[in-house]
Amino acid sequence: MKKRVKNYLINLMKKSRKQSGFTLIEMVIVIAIIVMLLIIIAPNLVNQRNHAQKKTDEAFVTTLQTQVELYQDNHPGKKVTSLDVLKDGDYLTKDQESKLGKYEIDKDGKVRQKQ
């Protein structure tokens, strides 16, 4: 009986000395799964960013078109041939004025983004 208890205690001590944790292979597998998820997600994030930028540009074109029409209402008889005339009044903020270089006005008086 003493020998059995002694062997039981020795086995118990051996088990308690083992440290539990992740093996190197388990860590490599986890990292591989994370990398695969990033590979799947990254292109979608880039597409969403491009889509958001496109919508922002479309909204700014609408804002500029509205300001051109407001300018023409305030200055009857003057045809707007350049968006630079909007800088002379309170039509645009300084931030909006800095973005004017990417846009132009066509023959019909419509604002569009430069090609």
Sequence-ordered SSE layout with sheet pairings:
Layout: H1 2-17, H2 24-74, H3 94-98, E1 103-105, E2 111-113
> Strand-residue fraction?
5-15%
Shape verdict: rod-shaped
Give the total of beta strands.
2
Low-confidence stretches: none
User: How many H/I helical runs?
Assistant: 3
Rg, Cα atoms, Å: 34 Å
What value does the average pLDDT take? Answer: 86
* Largest sheet properties: 2 strands, antiparallel
Biggest sheet strand line-up = 1-2
- Percent helix: 55-70%
Number of domains: 1
What is the structural class?
A: mainly alpha
N to C succession of SSEs: HHHEE
Distance between the termini: 92 Å
Q: What does it look like?
A:
Belongs to the ComGC family. It is found in: Cell membrane; Cell surface. It holds the Pfam family N_methyl. Keywords: Cell membrane, Competence, Membrane, Methylation, Transmembrane, Transmembrane helix. It comes from Lactobacillus amylolyticus DSM 11664. The chain is mainly alpha-helical and 115 residues long. It has one domain. The chain is 63% helix and 5% strand. It is built from three helices and two strands, in the order αααββ. A two-stranded antiparallel sheet has the order 1-2. The N and C termini lie far apart (92 Å). The model has no long low-confidence stretch (mean pLDDT 86).
